[in-house]
Every structure is written in structure tokens, then in C-alpha cells.
Amino acid sequence: MATYLRFKNGAWYARFQVPPDVREAFDGKRELWKHLGTKLKRDATLRALAESGDFQRRVVAARNGGLPGSDYGGALEWLKQWRGAKALLASSGDDSLLDAVRDDIEDAAEKRFLKGVPWQEIEHEMRERESRELDSNRRAVIEALGGPPAKRWFKVATGETAPLLPHVDDWHRAYSRDVQDKTASMGKSDVLAFLETHPHADDITRKAVAEWIEKRLEAGGAGTTVNRSLTPLRSFWKWLQDREVVSEEMEPFAKHDVSRRAKQKGKSGGDKYVPFEPKEVVSLWKAAKEKDDDSLADLILLGAYTGARIEELCSLGIAEARGVVLKITEAKTTAGVRDVPIHSALKPVVKRLIQASDDGFLLSGLKPNKYGDRSAGIGKRFGRLKRAMGFNSRQVFHSIRKTVTTQLERAGISENVTADIVGHEKPRITYGTYSGGTSLRQRREAVEKIKYPALKGQCSAALTKGARRATLPS
Fold first, then answer.
1. What number of other Cβ atoms are within 10 A of residue 23's Cβ?
2. Which residues of the chain does CATH 1.10.443.10 include?
3. What is the CATH number of domain 163-272?
4. How many CA atoms lie within 13 A of 339 on its CB side?
5. Are 105 and 78 in contact (CB under 8 A)?
6. What is the pLDDT of residues 318-351, one digit of tens each?
7. pLDDT averaged over the chain?
8. Which of 81, 111, 222, 442 allows an S-S link to 438, with CB 3.0 to 4.6 Å?
């Protein structure tokens, strides 16, 4: 994912924050850095996505009883013996091997989960369970003292549930044959993120998925974003069904009406935000300049003349801004990867930003948050600015994107040309499926239709002025 990228000492890295609860599995490290082995940002983006997936896999494994690359603390190896004993019982009626394997599994669990526990505490637990007429067999005692990790370990070792993490890499290889590399990497990240809270087959029910959707929407996710995440999850589940890891009768990801739920919460992602008027965009730019927040002022200008998303602009490298287009390589969708012609009014601004950059990014000096998102801090500054100016919750930075599309529509620009400029899917199947896309000339002529009369004259000198970069708190 683009937010994991770091440019340091002339090279690209992927950087991850290690959650406190799994740092022991990462040798106590708070951060993990991976050199991506390339100087090209486009290649680094894809490699960072892959590293993100591997990192999430390690986190999930560490949280579920096994260290990275292990067999869930030996549980999967015991599962093989358990299944062999069950097969013998089914074919011959002989349960002696099953009893022996059960004893061995309990021995292994005791060593793993009760190491260091005083024998007096173990005896006390047994007596307590007997007095309350609860199961006091060996497994029950180990599970009681070992907690949820011990319970899960026993379920894996005896085939009562299936850990899904070991299957992710094999599914991803198959999925990669059907979709583009970036889509496959994003899909793997979505699956691994879901498995952090639903790591086993019995965790995944229709109700659990519905609750997960609700939480995503409550956290501010748009319906379109949640639907995008569901696509690889459905693919992963179908892959598991085909290999008889999960039941064919269970369809926990099917027929969730995300759009209806999103509309109920105002998170549909399609009609929540309203555009600014062109003069309002100029007023925002002026206000940022008056506050000496030159980075925010430049961000507003870039958005006003490109219609690009805030995260796309904040992740733009200077290498993607040299020439006559801005090369958007880090986008939410495949359609979002595009070349946007640089508006004539924007060219001197882009030139100045390239010359001033000292970290490889067009908008230099932005501090990423703990997740590596360079747009988070400056996005908050934009929010504070627009609220201070009296704009409401339906007017956000994304509203500038709507300002651009509104101007293009009113100028009579074809919807397909606009889609190629702002990175939307083509509205009709003929162009979306069979067309090779619009020409650079078509897009350049369309971009020049974007006008901000209030900027003319009084602001032209400020556009090219070598402004100092503001370093404001996020």
C-alpha cells in the first residue's frame, strides 16, 4: 500500500509499525524497515504492497499461537497425526491410537501453555472445576489456565477449526493470475487485515461479516471501499471451498447490501459530498496563504487543477511530475492509475515544487502518521481551515474533486474524457472494456477548461513565488 513507502538516503523502503502485543515475535522491534531494492517509485509501490501483505501475515501468525513461518506452534503437525488416528478408528474401530495421540497433544499443550505455572495452581483449578461440576479433564484445565490461545491451539490440533492464514499465499498466487499485480496485492492486504480479527474458519459467519461491514462504515469507510474489500474476500472463500477447507454450504460473504447500509449511515461514497464553487476554492487557497501554510496552499492548487484525490497528490514523487503530465501511480482503483496533463496555470507551481523538494516528493516535508499516510496531517489542517471559514461537513477536500468534474461537465467535456482525468471507471461498457483510452491531447484540451477567474491577476505572482514551506503541527 502506498502509505508504507519511505524515501530515505536515495532509496525506497517499506516501513511498518509493529503492534505492541506481537513485538516479542519481532525481536522487540517497534518498527520494521524493508529495503525495496529499486529506485523507481512505481516498482517500489508494488513491492511495498507485497511486503505489507507479508508483514500482516506475520502479525496474524504471532497473534494466533505460532511464530512467523511456523505451524501454529506445532498444532498443524499434531493435526496430521490426529487425522491419521481418526481414519484408523473409522476403518477398524480401533481407538487406541486416537487415545495415544490425544495424550501426546495434551502433553505438548501443557508444555506450551502451562510452562512456569505452579503445580498448586493447576491442582486448585482442577478442584474448583470439580466443585462447580465443570469439565475437569486435562484439556479443560489447560484451556482454563492457558486462556483463548490454548483453546484455539487445541481446536486447530484436533481439527475443530481451520486456521486460514496458511492458505493466503497459495490463494494469492492463483488470484494474481486473474487480476493486475496492484489489485492482487491490495486484495491480499484486505484478506490479511480481515484475518487479523477472524483468523479461523469458525470465526467467519454471516453475522460476523455483517458486523465487520458495520464497523467499517461506522469508522468512516465509504460503501464503495467496503465493497472493494469484499471482492478479494469472496475470492479467498471460494478458493477455500474448492479445496474443502471450508464448507460449500456456508456463504458468509454473499448478498450483503453494503450500498443500502452505507446510505443509511451517509457513507455511500457517491452523494455525501458537495462541490465547492470555484470562488470558494480560491478563498480557501487565500486563507491558507494568509496563514503562511504554503504546503496546504499548494495542495489546494494541485487539487483545483487536477481533480486528484488528496492521498494521490501527497504521494506524488518529483519523478512523476517532470514533463507535461502528473503520473498518478498510487490510486484506490486500477482506473485511478493515470496521466493528468499539467494545466498551464499549474506549470510554474510544479516547477517550483520540484526545485524545492528535498525528500523526493512533490509536496515536500509532509510528516506521515504512524501508518505512513502523508496526507493525514495536512488533511486535518484543511479540515480546520474550512471549518473556520464556515463550510459544513459535506464540504471536504474531496469536494474540490467534485468542483473539477462539475466544471468539465459544464464545459461540455465528454464523460469518458473526464473519467480518464480524475481516475473514474468508464461509465459505459463499450468504452470501459474495449477502448484504449482517450488521447493526451484530448485530456490536455479538457484540463484547460478548468478556470478560476478570481485567481487571475491578483494571484498570478503568488503562484510562482518561492514560498517557504510551513511546518505546522498536524
1. 13
2. 278-464
3. 1.10.150
4. 15
5. yes
6. 999 988 999 988 766 677 788 999 999 999 999 9
7. 82
8. 442
